[in-house]
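Batch manifest line 413
LIGAND: 2-acetamido-2-deoxy-beta-D-glucopyranose
JOB: complex structure
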Amino acid sequence: MSRSCRLHLSLVTQGSAFALLCLLLGTLEIDALNLTLNNSHNATCLHAQWQMNFTIDYETVNHGLKNVTIQVPSNASYSGSDCGTNDNVSQIKVQFGSGFFWNVNFTRENSAYFIDIISFSYDTSDNDTFPDAKEKGKVSTSFEVNTIGVPLDEFFRCRSVMTVTEGNVTHNYWDILVQAFIQNNTVSTKEFTCDEDESIVSTTTLTTVPVPTSKPIPKERPHPGTYSVKNGSAICLLATMGLQLNITKDKVTSLLNINPNTTDYGGKCLKESATFWLNDSNEHLEFLFAIKNGNRFYLKGVNVSLTFVNSSDFVAANNNLNCWDAPIGSSYMCNKEDTIAVSDTFQINTFDLRVQPFNVVEGKYSTAQECSLDDDSILIPVIVGAGLAGLILIIVVAYIIGRRKSYAGYQTL
Ligand SMILES: *[C@@H]1O[C@H](CO)[C@@H](O)[C@H](O)[C@H]1NC(C)=O
Ligand SMILES: *[C@@H]1O[C@H](CO)[C@@H](O)[C@H](O)[C@H]1NC(C)=O
Ligand SMILES: *[C@@H]1O[C@H](CO)[C@@H](O)[C@H](O)[C@H]1NC(C)=O
Ligand SMILES: *[C@@H]1O[C@H](CO)[C@@H](O)[C@H](O)[C@H]1NC(C)=O
Ligand SMILES: *[C@@H]1O[C@H](CO)[C@@H](O)[C@H](O)[C@H]1NC(C)=O
Ligand SMILES: *[C@@H]1O[C@H](CO)[C@@H](O)[C@H](O)[C@H]1NC(C)=O
Ligand SMILES: *[C@@H]1O[C@H](CO)[C@@H](O)[C@H](O)[C@H]1NC(C)=O
Ligand SMILES: *[C@@H]1O[C@H](CO)[C@@H](O)[C@H](O)[C@H]1NC(C)=O
Ligand SMILES: *[C@@H]1O[C@H](CO)[C@@H](O)[C@H](O)[C@H]1NC(C)=O
Ligand SMILES: *[C@@H]1O[C@H](CO)[C@@H](O)[C@H](O)[C@H]1NC(C)=O
Ligand SMILES: *[C@@H]1O[C@H](CO)[C@@H](O)[C@H](O)[C@H]1NC(C)=O
Ligand SMILES: *[C@@H]1O[C@H](CO)[C@@H](O)[C@H](O)[C@H]1NC(C)=O
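JOB STATUS: finished
ARTIFACT:
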């Protein structure tokens, strides 16, 4: 079988801009195709979300060549899609309208998987879609992609439009997120981005199989913000923190840094509780502090709601936390990265944290109680030091014993 393939990938920037505009307007939004497959053990083995349309050229009885663009309706069927029996070939099958059939095969080789063959067939005897078509009947096309190698345990992402013309059909694919051969039942958090998304090149022709390379999502440390809440004219709560939100939605994890420069904040100080909130156009985050045993404070609750442009809201809450525990009259400090697990789908990574929700005097932090993570920096030299001292002791003891033995030996001679 010939492995040669023509795959013309072109970046249609106007198309992307148009799609973005549609998303923003929220009016012309087309449903994305969306499929999650299980294997025979009910473990997730494939997840895919993508958009596609097809432009088909066909000959008419008396108006020459015509073309029609086919959109995939939201009630398309995925029946027949599966991860294969021995997990070496997975396939997605999409059927819709009157006789449209689309198929993609994924194959696996060692530590990578490939988008292998795409086939598409249509039936020109459908008079509604192909009015006055000269030839009536079923037409099948297929082509080998096989140029996109993705490391196992990474998901493939391509927001740009990929265009392929095969026979009389022009295929457009965009907003792709796919992972085949999922390991351990969870969609990876590692993204493998298509070249189109990375470099702005007007037309690229791929002829060779690129070596799979890992491209983890770089995410910088969030900038710490400094916040203070007043009760009347006096500061009653102080907080300094860099916050990174880790959101898992539709099995995809994304990281979001809070930018203190564009974030509004506030709070309330009561006798036995305090709240502190951060707000910007897309996110609302709230912290609830409480007092325990009359002498310590702690972070009791976190509430979050996020608004995404193109999908439903994300909310998470937990009011049974027990974090940031310190005596009242002191502040809690943690310079190292720490994590608050709010829910299965939401966690907050904190950086350069210092917080004092009660008994702030003259608008300044009181002495800090440091988190155990920060203590490591002191603990490690202590352990090393103790180890060295122990070693010296052993050497000294060995020396003394050695001296004694040789002395004893000398005596007997
Ligand atoms: C088909 O998809 C392409 C790429 O997103 C887009 O530019 C084009 O407008 C779509 N065609 C129709 C008729 O929606
Ligand atoms: C995919 O489909 C599932 C249910 O079929 C739905 O819960 C989920 O929100 C969909 N995701 C997207 C991105 O459309
Ligand atoms: C996939 O497996 C999960 C359990 O792991 C189950 O809840 C879900 O219903 C299964 N989905 C399908 C389509 O069988
Ligand atoms: C898989 O999950 C479905 C739905 O939850 C259930 O009906 C089916 O029995 C499960 N199959 C196995 C093999 O666990
Ligand atoms: C479809 O036909 C129109 C004119 O009828 C033409 O402008 C357009 O370029 C054609 N599109 C394709 C993909 O052939
Ligand atoms: C899908 O929806 C169209 C109308 O939008 C309808 O004509 C068609 O019968 C539906 N197909 C299925 C499989 O439900
Ligand atoms: C790959 O896809 C084709 C359809 O294009 C299908 O007929 C074939 O069985 C698939 N190959 C394997 C090994 O499953
Ligand atoms: C389509 O139109 C042709 C002629 O106009 C007719 O013979 C045929 O029966 C029609 N097919 C269907 C499925 O309606
Ligand atoms: C394209 O369409 C024309 C006329 O409809 C047909 O004669 C030709 O065989 C088709 N080509 C392919 C590759 O299907
Ligand atoms: C899957 O789990 C096994 C053991 O549970 C582990 O050794 C392996 O590294 C995991 N693989 C991935 C890709 O997470
Ligand atoms: C984000 O959360 C997921 C699971 O909730 C976890 O596996 C992943 O390591 C987290 N990533 C970061 C950067 O915190
Ligand atoms: C916030 O503003 C400061 C100074 O105006 C700037 O140095 C810093 O880079 C900004 N931070 C972010 C995340 O934009």
